């Protein structure tokens, strides 16, 4: 089983900055009992991201853009997890927006130009025309969701002049990255963190109802280089179930990170994960035993 040691010390200063940024933004909104969407917008504003509203598949999608802080012609697209589809086992959430946007924090650490793309009906759009709870429950990975995201990305890269991109997804966002890759020409690679790579296996393991209206990423053959990272201590995407699935999809590019859970603490690993994708002219610090970097 491929493993990598955490690199806590080397990432301390960056991680402290992210925590300070998160704390300052949260302090600004929590006193007013802001909605989850308002909190995400506050975090994005504190990081200096540009708020956008993109169109895709008849939906308005919230998005945030960060220009490059170093020369890089490749757009990085960040896809968040499923958020809060359910308030309890029996009650569907009225607003599925993520309460703890991990991918927004990771995007702040990325020097490449980057787009954080929200799903249909998330980030304050739950009451939009065409939105229904099914789009964040059993149809969360449905064809209309996937095509809406794909159309928004295609429009954005066409408008901004990008020719190449990479997809990054956490949890359910990783599932969407796999589903999106065949629909996005110019995709070089995709990276997933604690991703739901087989929705049927996931629902069976947890005893959930099947996602009957969704596409299953396990049914999609790999079309680009894939890098899958799993937390050794993740109860949501347990490695004993998903490590074989990830290994089958991308032999040699499946990494199990010791002492890592589902949402914490990927910031400590992010710089090394990015360098593995773009090592530069000299060999980069590859993750031990995880295979060669892409050309």
UniProtKB/TrEMBL annotation:
PROSITE patterns: PROKAR_LIPOPROTEIN
Keyword Cell division set for record: no
Mitochondrion as UniProt keyword: no
Top-level taxon of the source organism: Bacteria
Signal peptide start and end residues: 1-37
Key words, A-Z: Signal
Protein name as catalogued: Alpha/beta hydrolase family protein
Organismal lineage: Bacteria, Pseudomonadati, Pseudomonadota, Gammaproteobacteria, Methylococcales
């Amino acid at each position: 089983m491929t493993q990598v040691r955490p690199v806590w010390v080397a990432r301390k200063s960056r991680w402290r900055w992210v925590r300070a940024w998160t704390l300052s933004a949260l302090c600004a909104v929590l006193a007013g009992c802001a909605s989850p969407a308002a909190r995400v917008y506050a975090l994005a504003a504190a990081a200096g991201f540009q708020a956008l509203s993109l169109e895709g598949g008849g939906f308005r999608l919230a998005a945030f853009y960060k220009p490059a802080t170093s020369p890089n012609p490749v757009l990085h697209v960040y896809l968040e997890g499923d958020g809060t589809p359910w308030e309890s086992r029996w009650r569907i959430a009225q607003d599925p927006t993520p309460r703890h946007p991990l991918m927004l924090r990771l995007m702040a650490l990325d020097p490449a130009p980057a787009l954080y793309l929200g799903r249909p009906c998330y980030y304050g759009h739950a009451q939009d025309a065409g939105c229904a709870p099914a789009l964040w429950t059993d149809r969360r990975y449905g064809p209309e969701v996937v095509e809406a995201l794909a159309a928004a990305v295609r429009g954005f890269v066409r408008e901004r002049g990008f020719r190449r991109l990479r997809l990054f997804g956490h949890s359910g966002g990783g599932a969407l990255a796999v589903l999106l890759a065949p629909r996005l020409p110019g995709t070089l690679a995709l990276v997933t963190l604690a991703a739901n790579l087989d929705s049927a296996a996931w629902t069976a393991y947890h005893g959930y109802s099947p996602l009957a209206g969704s596409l299953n990423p396990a049914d999609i053959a790999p079309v680009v280089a894939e890098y899958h990272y799993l937390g050794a201590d993740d109860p949501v995407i347990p490695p004993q179930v998903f490590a074989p699935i990830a290994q089958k999809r991308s032999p040699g590019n499946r990494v199990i990170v010791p002492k890592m859970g589902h949402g914490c603490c990927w910031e400590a690993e992010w710089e090394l994960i990015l360098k593995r994708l773009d090592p530069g002219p000299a060999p980069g610090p590859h993750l031990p035993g995880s295979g060669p970097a892409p050309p």
